[in-house]
Amino acid sequence: MQTDAEPFLQRIRAFPDDDVPRLIFADWLEEQGGRETSPAKGPAGSGPGSDVARAAFIRVQVALAGLPDDDPRRGGLLVAERELLDAHRDEWEGPFRRLATGLVFRRGFVDEVNVDARQYLRHAHELFAAGPIRHIHLLNAGGSIGAVMQSPYLSRLRALTVFAAHAGDALARAVTRSPHLAELRVLHLGRNRLGDDAAEYLAGSPALGNLEELDLSENELGETGGRTLAASPHLANLRELEMRNNQLGPAGAESLAGSDRLASLHRLGLAGNDLGVPRIHSLTRVSDLLRVPALDLTANGLGPAALKAILVRPPSPPDGGEPVRLRELDLSHNELGEAGARVLADCTLLGGLKVLRLTGCGIPDDGVRALANSPHLNRLIAIDLGNNPVSDPGFRAFLDTPHLRGLRRLVVPGIGVSIRMRRALDSRFHRGVVRF
């Protein structure tokens, strides 16, 4: 629909990463006042109030996108954002009716949508004309996935999610054969029955060379699939790799963590991958897991012995350098107990650790005391001890310890800790205590 606003909208669609066209459009909207130029309703605009509100909304969201999470200005901007959306959401979502659902606004415009695959094939032109969409969640892909992946409009995306389509390796094959995904930065293919052949398709695709985030959670990838991804020559830009609830085993996990090909990897999600099997003790490079700055080992059946195999064996990098880059470690829902807590407390390789999550690890008072008094955990800024059998005597060690001077956030169990102790911990850690 051509309106006076269309030239501005065309430029926004052409340069979706640039804030300047959006802010210029906001200025123009404000100047128009009462003219019938609403971008949401075309020539049937709703007057000056709507245009001024849309201009304010664009500016608010652009400002929010540029602020860190802890910036004190965020609170007021978030309130303004919510009030504007509550008042005008129906109008601003108008162009997407009958085209898509689950609309998410970013930087003033609809940025993320859910769309049925067959609906996409029929209305892709209208969908992308309606706004500068950057992330599509493709629903009910089924037998349409091959046709969708040949759509040239996909070249406008930075993120694509195909979740729970149960499409199997055909999904990975279709994705890697698409000539339109070279600009993707984020690809989520969770719960699709992807096996090791799918890993081979993905690892061998130069079209995915710009990916920064890849989510393959809840699939059927085994050790071979892990090794295949680790050896990919095309995933050097990958910063986050989520492999939750696959079947990698310890060898597949260590191959990913220790891969020189995945040179940019910052976070590796390995929850629920059977890493605690006895074979972990026979591997020679388990400590490669410590090369990843953020590591999730939740629910892997790790006990004290398996944890010791990961943390205590001295690393031996081929270049003689220090490979330990671990800064965030999640060991939640592993049966570590007191012995596992002591393994952590005694580990000299954890000197750079800043965040430690130990929810539901069966750690009693003595284990918590060991953690609080560890000289090797001095750089921690956050520790999660929720859902552990800990009481006041255990947490008293956090009040008395000469260590943990930088700790700012402490999660304590919801039961077993008195109100008096909570208040003391609040005071000690500047109200950083969270009940869980």
Structural account:
It is built from 15 helices and 14 strands. It is globular. Among the domains are: 6-92, no CATH class; 275-436, Ribonuclease Inhibitor (Leucine-rich repeat, LRR (right-handed beta-alpha superhelix)), CATH 3.80.10. Helix content is 36%, strand content 12%. A 14-stranded mixed β-sheet has the order 1-2-3-4-5-6-7-8-9-10-11-12-13-14. Strand 5, helix 8 (196-203) and strand 6 (213-215) form a beta-alpha-beta unit. The protein starts with 5 loop residues before the first helix and ends with a strand. By secondary structure, the chain is of the alpha/beta class.
- The portion of residues assigned to helices is 25-40%
**Shape annotation:** globular
Read across the widest sheet, the strand sequence of neighbours is 1-2-3-4-5-6-7-8-9-10-11-12-13-14
CATH homologous superfamily classification of the domain at 275-436: Ribonuclease Inhibitor
CATH topology of the domain at 275-436: Leucine-rich repeat, LRR (right-handed beta-alpha superhelix)
**Biggest sheet record:** 14 strands, mixed
Strand content: 5-15%
